[in-house]
Design brief:
The structure is a single chain. The protein has one helix and three strands, in the order βαββ. By secondary structure, the chain is α+β, with helices and mostly antiparallel strands. The protein has one domain (3-77): Translation Initiation Factor IF3. The N and C termini lie close together (8 Å). The relative contact order is 0.34.
Length: 78
């Protein structure tokens, strides 16, 4: 079977210190999954993608930086 895929970035969460962080993360993911399920997308996986950021100007004096983004992948049969 062939699939088409849709990848969605998970937004950054702002949580008050001492709050139930796990619950906030679960709620965020649940919202994303349900929203796309209503459009017929099947949840496939969650990944963390590393990104290397380069300075904008060649001689800016800043070092490269590294960051990461979490994405959710959905699929649909074609």
């Amino acid at each position: 079977m062939s699939y088409k895929y849709k990848v969605v970035q998970v937004p950054s969460l702002e949580v008050v210190r001492g709050a139930q962080v796990g619950d906030a993360v679960a709620q965020c993911l649940e919202t994303i999954l349900n929203r796309h399920a209503q459009e017929g997308w099947e949840f496939y996986r969650v990944d963390c993608i590393g990104v290397r950021l380069f300075p904008q100007a060649e001689f800016s004096g800043h070092m490269d930086a590294h960051t990461s983004f979490h994405v959710v992948t959905f699929r649909k049969p074609v």
